[in-house]
Design goal:
Layout: E1 8-13, H1 21-31, E2 37-42, H2 48-56, E3 62-65, H3 70-76, E4 79-80, H4 82-87, E5 92-96, E6 99-103, H5 106-117, H6 121-124, E7 127-131, H7 135-146, E8 151-155, H8 159-166, E9 173-176, H9 181-184, E10 190-193, E11 217-220, H10 229-236, E12 240-242, H11 245-251, H12 253-260, H13 268-281
Parallel strand pairs: 1-2, 1-3, 4-6, 7-8, 7-10, 8-9, 10-11, 11-12
Antiparallel strand pairs: 3-5, 5-6
The protein binds NADP nicotinamide-adenine-dinucleotide phosphate (NAP).
Length: 282
């Protein structure tokens, strides 16, 4: 089957109704007057191979992938890049030279958001402290190291998960349990929450920032609510803060470019549209 003139893409996962990706890509399709489409499709793990064949056959240009399919998709695609092979997780699928390719754009989305909000972050951020050691944390470690952070401390409830990430980055990443926060804060240049704590419907993230280095940047990848308690606390202490919504918007850019042929921009208008949707659903 050949590609239809109007390219189609979508986000897959289960559940999928919460995904804001259709709103983001729909905004860019309209802005660039592209007659393509971007939908959400419920795909369960045992349906993944059948769905990916639809992309191989040209029915769709590609897709974004969310929970619980990211690791399974990594296993199922024909080709990945070095970074994605280290992460073993795929959130963007596209065709190139007849091959089904998978990549992970979370790390690039995080860095683009950080650079946009704190252009001089690199000179300010030699030592990063990441709370959490899940899938997102692994993407952040990879991106921060590739982009110039000197050292990283990972602090996680389950220290074995932090140790598993650190093992891939000898001499650069230091794994600890939750007890280490107090000692880490005074030497932190950038503090990142990558746990799900503080997200609407999840337990609060209970961290006291009293000992945090005064020049530290504080960022939270949780974006519901837009301003988490961590960011509120940091802001009231005078720290530069970076919201998680920007990461969500920036991670969508590479997929749109691959499927629809135009590199879209993350604008204030787009930010406000998604922010209004988040606020409206709270
Ligand atoms: N802004 C964006 O674009 C973006 C992108 C990706 C993810 N996110 C958000 O980032 C968060 C994490 O995503 P993920 O994919 O990394 O999830 P994940 O793989 O499930 O990891 C969850 C992390 O949160 C920790 N955690 C969960 N409940 C906890 C508790 N009660 N006490 C202490 N730690 C707890 C886990 O610690 P343990 O290892 O001890 O269980 C783990 O480190 C989610 O809220 C997700 O929505 C945002």
């Amino acid at each position: 089957m050949t590609m239809e003139t109007a390219p189609k893409a979508c986000v897959i996962g289960s559940p999928i109704s919460h995904s804001r990706s259709p709103l983001i890509h729909g905004y860019w399709l309209k802005k660039h007057d592209i007659s393509g489409s971007y939908d959400r499709i419920e795909v369960k793990p045992d349906q993944l191979d059948g769905f990916l064949d639809r992309i191989r056959q040209g029915e769709l240009a590609g897709c974004n992938v969310t929970i619980p399919l990211k690791e399974l998709t990594f296993e199922a695609v024909d080709q990945t890049d070095d970074q994605t092979r280290r992460l073993k997780s795929v959130n963007t699928v596209y065709m190139l030279d007849g091959k089904l390719c998978g990549t992970s754009t979370d790390g690039a989305g995080f860095m683009a958001n950080l650079r946009q909000t704190v252009p001089d972050w690199r000179t300010r951020s030699k030592h990063a402290v990441i709370l959490g050691a899940g899938g997102a944390a692994r993407s952040l470690v990879e991106a921060l190291i590739n982009d110039g952070a000197a050292t990283i401390t990972i602090i996680n409830r389950t220290v074995e998960r932090a140790e598993a990430i650190a093992a891939d980055y000898p001499d650069r990443v230091d794994p600890h349990g939750w007890y280490a926060i107090e000692h880490a804060l005074p030497v932190t240049d950038i503090l990142i929450n990558s746990t799900s704590l503080g997200m609407t419907g999840q337990p609060p993230l209970e961290v006291c920032l009293d000992g945090l280095k005064s020049t530290a940047v504080v960022t939270d990848i949780v974006y519901t609510p837009l301003r988490t308690e961590l960011l509120n606390q940091a802001s009231s202490r005078g720290h530069t803060v970076v919201e998680g919504l920007g990461m969500l918007l920036h991670q969508a850019v590479p997929g749109f470019e691959k499927w629809f042929g135009i590199r879209p921009e993350v604008t204030d208008d787009l930010h406000d549209l998604i922010a209004a949707d988040i606020t409206g659903r709270q």
